[in-house]
Design brief:
This protein is mainly alpha-helical. 41% of the residues lie in helices and 8% in strands.
Length: 125
């Protein structure tokens, strides 16, 4: 892959600001000057993906999250070194429960799968 091709991928992934992207020519020149290694391209693409997810999350929360400045300055200032707010880990799904009754009189909810012991007498439910 040539650096012109890798730039096109970068440009495609780079977020719009106010509905448009500006300074493609300058950004391309900057990219060619940077001449990023495949490792660096990966770091940059990961950063952009992380940034995209943060913006998507904030849009859902109706919080403003400014996209990065134009690509030329972003590249020039090596902004991929910026630390991003970590993405929240997906919450584990709650385990399905079902109502259970024990001969000792206890009743309540137990996990649907697997064996549960009665919290009162310790017998398997
Ligand atoms: Zn019991």
């Amino acid at each position: 892959m040539t650096q012109t091709e890798s730039f096109d991928i970068f440009w495609e992934a780079y977020p719009k600001r106010g509905g448009c992207k500006k300074g493609k020519k300058q950004a391309r020149a900057q990219w060619l000057r940077l001449n990023p290694s495949p490792e660096l391209i990966q770091i940059i693409m990961d950063w952009l993906e992380h940034d995209r997810k943060l913006r998507e999350r904030n849009r859902k929360r109706k919080q403003f999250y400014a996209p990065p400045k134009d690509a030329f300055r972003w590249l020039r200032d090596e902004r991929w070194e910026d630390e991003l707010e970590p993405l929240p880990k997906p919450k584990p799904k709650p385990k399905p429960t079902e109502f259970a009754r024990c001969s000792c009189g206890w009743q309540g909810y137990k996990e649907k799968e697997g064996t549960c012991l009665c919290p009162k007498c310790g017998k398997p439910l």
